[in-house]
Amino acid sequence: MIKTISDDLVIVLAGEAGQGIQSIESILAQLLKMSGYNFFSASEFMSRVRGGANSTEIRVSAKRAAGFLERIDILIPLHKEAIAHLKKRITADTIVIGEKDKIAHQGMIDIQFTGMATELGSAVYANTIAAGCICGLLKVDEQECADFILEYFSGKSEEIRNKNLAAIKKGYAAGKGLAGIAIAIEKDAAVKTDLLLSGSEAIALGALAGGCDYVCAYPMSPATGVLEKMASYSKKFPIIVEQVEDEIGVVNMALGAWYAGARALVTTSGGGFALMGEGISLCGMIESPLVLHLAQRPGPATGLPTRTEQGDLELVLHAGHGDFPRIILAPGTLAEGFALTQKAFNLAAKYQVPVFILTDQFFVDSRYNTPAFDATDLKVEKHIVKTGKDYQRFALTQNGISPRGIPGYGSGNVGADSDEHDEDGHISEDLDLRVKMVDKRLEKFAAISADIIPPRLVGSDNFKTLVVCWGSTFNTVCEAVAVLGKKDIAVLYFSWLFPLPEKAGAFLRKAANLIVVENNATAQFARLLKLATGVAIEQQILKYNGLPFAVEEVKKEIQRFI
Predict the structure, then answer these.
(1) Contact, 37 vs 451, CB < 8 A?
(2) 101-109: long-range contacts (C-beta < 8 A, 24 or more apart)?
(3) Dihedral, CA of residue 64, residue 67, residue 68 and residue 73, to nearest 10
(4) Which CATH superfamily is domain 199-370 in?
(5) Residue 316 near residue 294 (C-beta atoms within 8 A)
(6) Residue 248 in contact with residue 276, Cβ under 8 Å?
(7) Phi first, then psi: what are they for 291, rounded to 5°?
(8) Which of 59, 294, 404, 509 could link 40 by a cystine bridge, Cβ 3.0 to 4.6 Å?
């Protein structure tokens, strides 16, 4: 009996850290996209350099798809622990392809990846053979595979290039020759011109488009990918990239860079951000711009350092002592990752406030094809004035925004002090002036409202049930609701979290049935919505085991509430 897979295929590669799962995924991502297949991948891995049990999901679809699926159509286990690790996702319909002498699983199709690799001189070529096997199954053009592999390993010796070429050919032949599997997924020529990016790359590109010229960070998963990408851009663009000794130094160096006129980016995760609280408060007092990308992972403390969670919203919302304004953004798509990061630099410069970009491990490490970003009207807005002798850095203004000068640009002095101060920036304990300065800073909230991005409604305006989500859950939630196929259910999605859009309350009050989906344990965004709108969302779909939501589980939970 032949099993036919059409429209949507889920392949999972599983094995130990160090076995090269990411290398297989990288090869397949580019080859499948070049062939016109819509591609999506998401990884889950243990905090280990070697050993453990890791997996990467690859979706190959007839239509664009960026949601995580629980289902596994084809599993390629590269280690004996892989079957046990994924047992909850393996069903009778899952096709398992592996080495029978190493991995015990009933009905498994035997392909000796290691044996074929050893014939070529080393077991290391097993990864290329596995990639070739999948290409053979999907009938990717064989010559394209060969040409790509030679280019992919172009920096290696001729011997290694030729052996990898032989390896992908062996794998291709094995996959093409598999009986009982027919894959009929329609290709789309338009996909070939798409971008193929990870969330980290989208954030880094947005920073580049925002005029970022200084990046500082202390490496911390899962935010390090942005640091690495910006470091690669520094070879072609005038960007200074600094790996600092600790996160306290990071935030203060970024503030110093903004003070001098640079456009600085900080990238970190929750544990690193926890050390930055005093610096964030300093940012509020000196009214400095700041752009900070925080890729969330489960806490408290070290938590699960390589997993995902939306658990740091309240941390960012309340970071720093004292009252001062801030902006919090949370992209849900790669296009938003680019656009919101670019916008963040202009917002920070315009309002002289910290702007936080909240992502998470699922967002930054996922990769998929997407249409080229629209960069036609993007501008780098610096909002810097040339100072005169009578310049006052913290001049009291009607909208709370004082003219921002930088040292050396004009004849004025540019004050900056962590104490309360007068309009010139000199320390002051005039209590009446203190009230005026606090009010001045808070007055920025009214000005910021002009730039707030309203929530996006996906579905009919005549909804009865409204599913609320934010950030990285967007694609998965939208797909789950679409699969339900009910016209009276819509998704209300937020990418601008704070200050909350005024329209939020009207949407919430219109719904007869409210559901919130959050990748945390306490529905942090629902609490923020209640605080701002007075509307409580009692029906909550929460997940906090370190894994992202799957389309199937969101669909099931929504059905339970309706």
Answers:
(1) no
(2) 103/77, 103/79, 104/80, 105/77, 109/178
(3) -30
(4) Thiamin diphosphate (ThDP)-binding fold, Pyr/PP domains (3.40.50.970)
(5) yes
(6) yes
(7) -120, 120
(8) 59
3-class SS of residue 195: strand
Return the closest-CA partner of residue 351 out of 437, 422, 449, 271. 449
Identify whether the C-beta of residue 465 lies closer than 8 Å to the C-beta of residue 507: no
Q: How do residues 451-493 score in pLDDT, each as one tens digit?
A: 999 999 999 999 999 999 999 999 999 999 999 999 999 999 9
Strand (E) positions, 269-308? Answer: 290-296
- Tens of pLDDT, residue by residue over 206-249, are 999 999 999 999 999 999 999 999 999 999 999 999 999 999 99
DSSP-derived secondary structure for 436-482: HHHHHHHTHHHHHGGGPPPPEEES-SS-SEEEEEEGGGHHHHHHHHH
Cα distance between residue 383 and residue 75, in whole Å = 53
Kind of pairing between the strands at 195-198 and 367-370: antiparallel
State the average pLDDT over residues 21-49: 92
Same fold, 3-193 and 455-561: no
Whole-angstrom CA distances from 156 to 24, 149, 151, 164, 228 are 17, 11, 10, 10, 22
**Counting Cβ atoms within 10 Å, is residue 535 exposed (0-12), middle (13-18) or buried (19+)?**
middle
Dist CA 368 CA 43 (whole Å): 12
**248 Cα distance to chain centroid:** 24
**Spatial distance between the Cα atoms of 223 and 219, rounded to a whole number of angstroms:** 7
- Length, in residues, of the chain: 562
What is the overall mean pLDDT for the chain?
95
Distance, CA of 437 to CA of 133 (rounded, Å)? 66
Q: How confident is the model at residue 512 (pLDDT cuts 50, 70, 90)?
A: very high
Rounded Cα–Cα distance for residues 256 and 240 (Å): 13
* pLDDT score of 5: 77
Closest CA to 47 of 308, 360, 247: 308
Domains of the chain, residue spans: 3-193, 199-370, 384-451, 455-561
pLDDT at 3: 73
- With b for 16 or more beta-carbon neighbours within 10 A and e for fewer, the 293-311 pattern comes to bbbbbbbeeebbbbbbbbb
DSSP class per residue in 345-385: HHHHHHHTSEEEEEEEHHHHH-EEEEPPP--TT--------
Selection from 364, 372, 428 nearest residue 396 by Cα: 428
- Which token pair is 510? 């219109």
Under CATH, what is the fold of the domain 455-561?
Rossmann fold (3.40.50)
Q: What is the pLDDT of residues 408-438, one digit of tens each?
A: 999 999 999 999 999 999 999 999 999 999 9
- What are the Cα distances from residue 25, in Å, to 58, 75, 255, 533? 8, 13, 38, 44
3-193 fold: Pyruvate-ferredoxin Oxidoreductase; domain 3 (3.40.920)
Q: Are 291 and 226 in contact (CB under 8 A)?
A: no
Distance of CA 472 to the CA centre of its chain: 7
